Amino acid sequence: MNNVKKSESSAGKPETKNKHMILGAVLGNNFGSHPAAWRMPHADLGSYTNIDAIVKQARSAERGGMQFLFLPERLFLQGDLSKAPPLFNIDPIITLSAVAQATEKIGLMGTASTSFTEPYLLARQFKALDVISRGRAGWNAVPSYEPVAFANFGKVPPLRENKYERLHEVVQIVQALWGSWGYEAGRPDPNGMFADPAHIRPIDLQGKHVGARGPLPIPPSEQGQPVIMMPASSGYGLQAAGMYANVVVGMPSTIQESRAIRRALQEAAVQAGRDPEEIKFVVFAGFTVGETKRKALDARRALDDRTDIRGPLSHLGAYLGLREEIALPDAPLTAAQLASVRANPQDARSILAVKLAKAGWSPRDILAHGVFEATPTIVGTAEEAADYLQEWFEAGAADGFVTNFDDFHTGIDEFVDRVVPVLRERGLFLDGYEGKTLRDHLSLPEQYGLDPRIANESTGGAL
Amino acid sequence: MNNVKKSESSAGKPETKNKHMILGAVLGNNFGSHPAAWRMPHADLGSYTNIDAIVKQARSAERGGMQFLFLPERLFLQGDLSKAPPLFNIDPIITLSAVAQATEKIGLMGTASTSFTEPYLLARQFKALDVISRGRAGWNAVPSYEPVAFANFGKVPPLRENKYERLHEVVQIVQALWGSWGYEAGRPDPNGMFADPAHIRPIDLQGKHVGARGPLPIPPSEQGQPVIMMPASSGYGLQAAGMYANVVVGMPSTIQESRAIRRALQEAAVQAGRDPEEIKFVVFAGFTVGETKRKALDARRALDDRTDIRGPLSHLGAYLGLREEIALPDAPLTAAQLASVRANPQDARSILAVKLAKAGWSPRDILAHGVFEATPTIVGTAEEAADYLQEWFEAGAADGFVTNFDDFHTGIDEFVDRVVPVLRERGLFLDGYEGKTLRDHLSLPEQYGLDPRIANESTGGAL
């Protein structure tokens, strides 16, 4: 286990201690996060169901030394299929199991809801993935909330507190099952025991919603058990992340917001009796990188050109405070228009849009800057992308980033070939993998079984 | 689809119509079905969790043109780990997803219980495997019954009829979800729609135990949807197999028993309004093959030597009707002993054991013949193995076989290199794959979605 770095630096201030940023890549429908990515001439139209497409993307991320892939999910069909493919992978853990076979180092993080699958099966599938990938698996544990998701299980959503009651039970039982084949059971001895049954014991946990006797017949992986990721949240969700998460993923818009989330998480970890350093906070960032800013903007415009941008243009006009529809989207705003623009000081996107308008960018170019993306988006040169990541990282806004790309067919390679070398030159990103497991890659402490600090605490009566 | 053979021969008698037998390989703990396989000097001690071990076995089976791999499961820890590894794979569908990536033609059949997982997730995982393997997936759908399995889900087993009530609901919902992204939705058109939403519709099925709204956002695979396998059973289980199964797997001891099961299955199919030819019946057969019968017996004895055979010897003595313990296990029975042996005419194993004793085989060699195996076992030359398969196949006892091996590290290669060529010479087994999908390999009819004959019938009020 590559924990040396952690202990060396653990005396430093939490927000500036990391020497190297963590980089993950979110993968979705194998086309890209832009709704027109599938319409590009270079796109393989079968990518949504073509395992080769995601294997290629995974290998690109691995070539760039990225620490993990992240496959989110939705338990229902989202969006209008006449316009774009579903945004998410067909099935994260099935896909990751195949990707495990086609990669060697990169971490494999997949989402699975705590609301529907029995913990015995969740524990078995993620530990099996961890074992076949030789210690590279991670589980993004999320409670479902959407009524359309519950409808796919013949159910209606529970109250928020009940949702988290089940999450606590599921995560605790899964972790206990993961640890139920003890290290002390030993390795197979051809002249003795295959394993010592004295150290492979039932867990006998029964909650209000779920239960399991155990043990789970899977020995430790190279990293012991999978890493646990959770989404940044508040209230019950923040408390759960403080208790269980090794990694938390968030979507803040600004450095300030990101630092606040990170601080709240660290407090939640302390509340749960854990070292705040044990939680890595990673945030989403989207990229379209080009040789020049103009080329990057044109790459995004090639995508926008394949969608109906009347809606976004009208939205932008309203956002800038313009009274009339934008008639000439390719021309910079006129002096009269510029005189009337107003930014909403509470809205980072609005501030950015106004700034770009004042700098002379045309409405189409403002849109091409990705101002309406759900997460911060960088459209520009490799140096601009690296500047952005460096600023957030050095400000203690995050331990790392989950990169996202408009076009997966080209985006990851562009990032790996252009941005990663700049980050390495600046000493911000490791040159290759130092360890072998996802836990190594994230400098996480060892854990096997249910964290004894949690196991010994009252957990709100969940178990 | 390779259905030509089927229609050409469908006028013939059901029990002799097939020209070529189906061959599958059951894979378990990656060591072998003999409890001492892991102790052999050539065994990699890490095989239970080493994906490379099963990939090697899968590739051997594919090299031999076998139609499918079959991964059973148990939802609990079975057996004494001090003596042997668990008999079953760590997680069938996770393992098969990795194996999909390392193979190209062979079918991938995995067991998943209908008792615990929600149908939306079963449907999603198996269809995702089907899509990433380009139409090679199969689901062995079984209801769980063991109290120890239910304990791993914090539950107690239901009554038998309720168990099947849930199975009907789960299988019908899974199949309906599989078909919910209609073929008519079309292929992505970069100048038009990604898919036509008019043909991707909710299924809105709600049963007593489970339900789902749908649709499942996964387009058809190369074979449409996964193949469904079920175990040979009676009563409720037989009825369900008649309704849903494309393949049924059984463990009969004799040709007569096997023919009776096959006939009952065909009747159950007719009862369900299906063509009896649509159900392929495959039976287990275990093999240790050697250059000579002596070498094959010695290979098994090398395994037996690594276990305590006092128990089996004592069992054999009682089985043969001997009054005293067997003192000289390596010597043929004496004339006095032979005079007292009696076969139980109702028990095929007993008949075989007595026959072998009378032929002069020593008690250890009788055990090495595999007389106490749960399924028929052939220990001998390639010709003897082929004779056995030919006899069963030509007697209409089965459409094919699920091969099993004492030692997976050597058994599959021995079978592929020695037995398969003999079967091909005799015109009993295809030389390579004619089609691309599991449905092709099994000469199964096309099916997409819930079989309309089932969908339109009353199904005992399950849905």
Secondary structure layout:
The structure is a homodimer of 463-residue chains.
Chain A: H1 4-9, E1 22-26, H2 51-63, E2 68-71, H3 92-102, E3 107-113, H4 119-132, E4 137-142, H5 147-151, H6 160-178, E5 205-206, E6 211-212, E7 227-231, H7 236-244, E8 247-250, H8 255-271, E9 280-289, H9 293-304, H10 310-320, H11 335-340, H12 348-358, H13 363-368, E10 377-380, H14 382-394, E11 400-405, H15 408-425, H16 438-441, H17 452-455
Parallel strand pairs in A: 1-2, 1-11, 2-3, 3-4, 4-7, 7-8, 8-9, 9-10, 9-11
Antiparallel strand pairs in A: 5-6
Helix pairs in contact in A: 2-3, 2-15, 3-4, 4-6, 6-7, 7-8, 14-15
Q: What do these coordinates show?
A:
- Two copies of one chain form a homodimer.
- The first copy, chain A, has 463 residues and is of the alpha/beta class.
- The first copy, chain A, has 17 helices and eleven strands.
- Chain A has helices at 4-9, 51-63, 92-102, 119-132, 147-151, 160-178, 236-244, 255-271, 293-304, 310-320, 335-340, 348-358, 363-368, 382-394, 408-425, 438-441, 452-455, and strands at residues 22-26, 68-71, 107-113, 137-142, 205-206, 211-212, 227-231, 247-250, 280-289, 377-380, 400-405.
- The first copy, chain A, has an eight-stranded parallel barrel, surrounded by eight helices. In chain A, strands 5-6 form a two-stranded antiparallel sheet.
- The longest helix of chain A is centred in the middle third of the chain and has 19 residues, at 160-178.
- The two termini of chain A are 31 Å apart.
- The relative contact order of chain A is 0.16.
- Residues 1-16 and 458-462 of chain A have low confidence and may be disordered.
- At the A-B interface, helix 3, helix 4 and strand 6 of A face helix 3, helix 4 and strand 6 of B.
